[in-house]
């Protein structure tokens, strides 16, 4: 099982094109979008190449490969442009190891406000735009960072799960953070 993660696209067509290019190169079967897909949000500047309708058209070509959750900047109007569901606040994935992965955007559930999780569960979220891959109190926390608006001096990044390992990778190919998913 291979999963490709992206978060906080915020309607930037050039950044979404990079995500799709890396997703295709990766060979992953699933693109997990952790929210804030089309709208830049009122607290962010309008990103370079802001083209929400074109981002939707591009992502719709991969609708059968996308699992998405709603971010705080996503709305029902955004959903009308997309051919895959993205209005749920969270979802669960079951990994080949039997581990559960809770996926969410991060504005409702995050590293400090967690849903009920079992020891060795994984929690993937975006929202902070800050890369993270670590085990804390028996829970694996994962944030692929942001594609469009990286913060705290981090480069734009995406996430990858393969062979029981999570990685946050810059678009230049540097591993920013990584964590094994098993003891």
Automatic annotation (TrEMBL):
<dbReference type="Pfam" id="PF12850">
    <property type="entry name" value="Metallophos_2"/>
</dbReference>
<dbReference type="GO" id="GO:0046872">
    <property type="term" value="F:metal ion binding"/>
</dbReference>
<dbReference type="GO" id="GO:0016787">
    <property type="term" value="F:hydrolase activity"/>
</dbReference>
<dbReference type="InterPro" id="IPR041802">
    <property type="entry name" value="MPP_YfcE"/>
</dbReference>
<dbReference type="InterPro" id="IPR024654">
    <property type="entry name" value="Calcineurin-like_PHP_lpxH"/>
</dbReference>
<dbReference type="InterPro" id="IPR029052">
    <property type="entry name" value="Metallo-depent_PP-like"/>
</dbReference>
<dbReference type="InterPro" id="IPR000979">
    <property type="entry name" value="Phosphodiesterase_MJ0936/Vps29"/>
</dbReference>
<keyword id="KW-0378">Hydrolase</keyword>
<comment type="similarity">
    <text>Belongs to the metallophosphoesterase superfamily. YfcE family.</text>
</comment>
<feature type="domain" description="Calcineurin-like phosphoesterase">
    <location>
        <begin position="1"/>
        <end position="159"/>
    </location>
</feature>
<protein>
    <recommendedName>
        <fullName>Phosphoesterase</fullName>
        <ecNumber>3.1.4.-</ecNumber>
    </recommendedName>
</protein>
<keyword id="KW-0479">Metal-binding</keyword>
